[in-house]
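question for whoever is on the cluster today: can someone run the full assembly for these? two chains, 458 residues total. i dont have access anymore since they changed the login thing
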Amino acid sequence: MKPPLLDILTPSSLAEALSLLSEHGDEARPLAGGQSLVPLLNFRMSRPAILIDLNQIADLAYIKDAGDYIAIGAMTRERSIEDSDLVRKEAPLLQEATTQIAHLPIRNRGTIGGSLANADPAAEYPAVVLALECELVVQSVRGERRIKAAAFFEDVLTTALEPDELLTEIIVPKAPSGSSSAFVEIARRHGDFALAGIAAQITFANSAPTDVRLAVCGAGTTASRLTAAEEIIQRDGVGPEAIKAASEAAASAVDPMSDLHASADYRRRLTGVMIGQAVEKAAQRAGVIS
Amino acid sequence: MKAPRKVSLTVNGEALSGEASPRMLFADFLRDVLGKTGTHVGCEHGVCGACTVIVDDVAVRSCLMFAVQAEGADVKTVEGLADGEELHPLQKLFSEHRALQCGYCTPGMLMTAIDLVASNNALSEQDIKVGMSAALCRCTGYDGIVKAVTAYAEQVHGKPIKRESDNG
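^ ran it for u. tokens below:
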């Protein structure tokens, strides 16, 4: 399988990339790490006439401490996020999720911006940015805007990005003190796309959850928050009864797809089971349960 | 616009160049243009790992990169491992531990293992199993591969790694 006939343009600055995107619009697609896009090209699921290669734009790859948040450039490689002490300390959910993305050689090329803009329903990062309530910075020749993660993912492989817009930065709020997190997923083999996965970010005060964020990937057309399950944990705590009720609420809230890897029913059941695992793991890490 | 363009890069320390059309994958460029056929092509969509090479010090799938993206890159392929007739230590361990049968996956296995071991000086046997699952082998059942890479990690980092079989 080879990519279709296409041209590759290689801008060396963000301004040049935005100008090319504006000029070519729907005809062009930005090329980030290529770890999802190249297979999509090979399978002819995507047929752009032009790829705008972002790999020579050095100032799109960074992880910066910006006070209340971490700013991550869209072209930052997944391996850099995995290895970042700043991310491990201030956004441990993001670090843990990154280690579960595919395999090391894929994470050496794959980027956070590419994964988010591709919006694969089974990918880890969309669930993480929903749970961490990140903001996504988007630029075009028309200017800059910020999109809340909750408004970014619209459908399978479809986001709020306009054809001339480029995702340039991810704003990751630092996890508050007293918070804990867990990312769990189930795949048939390590490194495969998850059948379903859960991102849990929970803040505790005096052992009681005060802010509960649970997001799921792989169980619908986009990653999504599981608000009914969040409310149960926040109200009733992290005891076995509450976790059971939250698991059931999560399972009935999702609308997964069936494919050759798993049926919709199985994914729904997995969602419930993994809500339990993720909440327990986060609570254990916070020292709230043993 | 889609005319071939010149790509200049370093492969195993040697400055090379060749022509590539924009759609040409880096794996095909290595094999068909530069004649470096040690890099094998399996699935061509990033799953099997047979085409893994080292680009600028990290292992990547050469089938998920375009040739034109390798402009200026420092690349290491399986041909660059041995020093003349003297095999690379990891190649010797693959031989000692019977870590290959048909050999199709082996170049990708070697390049995957080199980056895996270089990336972490505290690998467990489980880390090695997870890490080597990045490359598919359909002959060996991985037993010899895990043994060879574990022994290699011990050599490189100079400390023993506990085997699961040590538990009895």
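summary bc i know u wont read the tokens: The domain at 89-158 of chain B is CATH 1.10.150.120 (DNA polymerase; domain 1). The longest strand of chain B covers residues 5-11.
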